[in-house]
Design brief:
Number of helices: 17
CATH superfamily of the largest domain: NAD(P)-binding Rossmann-like Domain
Radius of gyration: 23 Å
CATH class of the largest domain: Alpha Beta
Low-confidence stretches: none
Number of strands: 13
Strand content: 5-15%
Largest sheet: 8 strands, mixed
Shape: globular
CATH topology of the largest domain: Rossmann fold
Helix content: 40-55%
Structural class: alpha/beta
Distance between the termini: 64 Å
Amino acid sequence: MTKINVVGLGYIGLPTAIMFAKHGFQVHGVDVNEDVINKLSHKELHIEEPGLQEALNEVTEAGHLTVATEPQEADVFIISVPTPITEEKTANLDYVRKATMSIVPYVKEGNLVILESTVPPRTVEDVMIPVLEKTELKIGEELYVSHSPERVIPGKIFQELEGNDRIVGGINKQSAELTEKLYKSFVKGNIHLTDATTAEMVKVIENTYRDVNIAFANELAKISDQIGVNAWEAIKLANFHPRVNIHQPGPGVGGHCIAVDPWFLSELQPEIADMITLARNTNDNMPAYTVERIQQIIEQHTITKPKVALLGLSFKGNVDDMRESPSLKIMEHLNKTNIDYNVYDPHIKDIRVPHQVTDLDEAIADADVVVILTDHKRFQEYQPEVIGQAMKTRIVFDTKNCLDESSWREAGFDFIRLGDAKNR
């Protein structure tokens, strides 16, 4: 039985490890966080993902998945660790470097090393291979190396791991073909082979495209706020054009991919990446703009000693992922004002940030404005009349266009939508 080490058991690494374990491989999961390992050892999850608990139980009870803080000898090593951005907007590759170093004592001739983490182009060539050369194996002949970035979205990870096309970039043809054979064990989509640096570039391009598109939508929302247009309606109608696909505006861009990866290209060629940098700055400035709109709403309603209920901490709906969430930046900006606020998210169970409360009632008690920052399905199920009874002033500011405007207006709310001057 082929044995696989997966280094990094986060939002991508853990589902990937479980997926291989479900398809007949003996998998050893590795994470430096002892709390993560302790939880997984007792079949307890540290992340939220549909179907993940059941799958963890299945592969653990079958003996196909083990976890520890140290790697073991294996046939394949998959590295799936974070690549955060620094304050200088450059990629922090320390996790990739340390993860690669951690497997060096266990690598043997004929092994395959795969990097799944999203990284700047040339990371495999310039960061990983110099470390792997410490094994004294001939890279590409005795030790095979490739990059195969994930293409999944939280909330649908298992479906997309199987169904999406996959890019595989090897440092040579044999590395790519070995990686293709491995992923064919569960990938139903097409697998496209290329070189490692091109694969790295492809992943960053995909997320940068989306970031630029969202920045365009956010500019349309700002313009619409000024000229009496509903940006959401205008974008919807524009998208009926057969060659137009504008994304949706919002209070900012979060997640570990879109909010981070464009900086990897900007870092490599800052004198060229003008559009990329402008788009990234546009989206980074949306939390500040959202707070400006909150302040305008409070001023327009002549509210003294205002209190706001922020609903939503995760960066997207129906998940518990707070990485790069615009809600966190919105809170930072609110801290510089005289606005009191609470923040509530039904998917974030642990108290992690100041002003976070554990139930909706506490969040909305005596609030003047409810601000929707994440499009959780649960928020759409709230009854406006019940919400209004607990509030001091009935105002709702929907930054995600996810609420039924008519039902909130019928309950006596002043309904305001980001990027919609028609309802101001």
